[in-house]
Structures are given as structure tokens and as C-alpha cells.
What does this fold into?
Amino acid sequence: MSLSTSPTILIVAAGRGLGHALAEQFHLQGWHVIGTVRPGSGHTKLHDLAANGGVEIETLDIGEPEQIAALRRRLDGRELDAVFVNAGITTEDQNVTIGEVTNDDFTSVMLTNALNPMRVIEALQDLVSPTGLLGVMSSGQGSITNNELGQREIYRASKSALNQLMRGYAARQPEPKRTLLLTAPGWIRTDLGGPDAPLAIEDSIPRLVTVMLDQLGTPGLRFLDYRGEVVPW
Ligand SMILES: NC(=O)c1ccc[n+]([C@@H]2O[C@H](COP(=O)([O-])OP(=O)(O)OC[C@H]3O[C@@H](n4cnc5c(N)ncnc54)[C@H](OP(=O)(O)O)[C@@H]3O)[C@@H](O)[C@H]2O)c1
It folds into this structure.
């Protein structure tokens, strides 16, 4: 049962930053948006967007497997055209090295950026149309080829791990018909990106959404930036 005749995208982590901007853009493009916020988030920018209709709000902390299962149950019978997992974190000290990082900090970034997005994809994939899109927010920092300057070691490693896990997922699809995307939005001024980033959200996300829409209907996995350029693994 679909609540809407518009195509539907589920965006995980849409309360602020790039996720909220993605929800706004898909909404502007006429899509029905289901956006998630973490339980107990209170009023977010997604709630403002939802006030105009065409946007539903769900709750999910991707670090809680029972919440992923509960969301899957709540969405039972829905037909989605796309699922995009945007959630991500970095270490508090972004430049902590692998020699200095604590087990807790390393584990937390790896779980949030690599394992848990894939858990969401695995749990929700069957709701997505056979020719739909499954995507995860990666980062140019996840490119091993492009890592010549170092820095942000833990974050980089987590996004490289995410990319590898998505490649494993893609490789085991028997008849790949869906679009699988890892996206690199550029370095953007958000809470995570910080104030020194060269791009504003508006410089990247409308273009990234165009890239995602252009990719719909082309099966297989790609790692693309917000200009539609292939990012080397
Ligand atoms: N900004 C950049 O320059 C940049 C560049 C490349 C890639 N990215 C990636 O883009 C994505 C969004 O980043 P952003 O810049 O918009 O950062 P942000 O403003 O810090 O937003 C992070 C988002 O992730 C959510 N999140 C974190 N942990 C979560 C969890 N366990 N369960 C559910 N949601 C969780 C946050 O929800 P709460 O509001 O509940 O905390 C928030 O919606 C991340 O994956 C990031 O790695 C960002």
C-alpha cells in the first residue's frame, strides 16, 4: 500500500544538516519523503518541512538494531522507490591519529559510519522497488586512492569500510537491477563539516539530488560526487 502516487524516498537522518537538505530537495522535486530523526530529537528542521505536507517523520537511531527492526515493521506494506542512509559522525578531535584514538571513539565511528548504515540497507531493502535506489552517504575522504595527505584517519577509514561493505553487498546481488550509490557531497559547512569548509549546503545538495535522480534506472554500484564525477575507490 502506498500512501502517495509520488515516488517515495526514505531518508535516514534528515533532521538537520545534509539530510534535512536532501529531504527538502526531494520534496521540491515532487517526491514523497519519509525522513527519520532520532527518538527524543524534539522539534527539528524536518518538522518545519513536514508542516507543509508531503513529508512524513519517522524515528530511528541506527545504532539500535531493535529500532531498525521496529521501523521495518512500521513500514510493512509500503513501497519505496529509494532508501538513502545519511547518518554519520566523526571523532570529536577530527585529527586524532590511529596511534592515539581510544577503543570507544574508534568503535563508535566505525559502527555509526560503516556497520549501521549497512544494517539499515539490509533491513529495508525488500521494501524498495526492484528498479529502485539504495544509497548511503559516503565521503570523498573514503577514497583510498585520493588519500595522499592523510588527516582525519578514523573518519576516512570508516567511510572506506562503508564503501567496501557496499561493494560486498553489490557483489552478492543475483540480478542487479537496482541503482546502488555511495555519494561524496564535497566538504560542506555543517556541524560535522565545520565552518572552514568551502561549500555551503546549497552548493552541493541540489546538485547531488540531480545526480541521484539521473542515476535512477541505471543498475549497479557507483561512487559519485555531487557533480556526478566518479570518485576513485
Ligand atoms: N559536511 C561535510 O563536509 C560532509 C562531507 C562528506 C560526507 N559527509 C557525510 O554526510 C552525512 C551528514 O553529515 P552532515 O555534514 O550533515 O553532519 P551533521 O550536521 O553532524 O548531521 C549528522 C546527521 O547524522 C545523524 N546521526 C548521527 N548518528 C546517528 C545515529 N546513531 N542514528 C541516526 N542518526 C544519526 C544526526 O542526527 P542527530 O541530529 O540526531 O544527531 C544528523 O542528522 C554524514 O554521513 C557525513 O559523514 C559530510
Notes: The chain has a mean pLDDT of 96. The chain is about 35% helix and 20% strand.
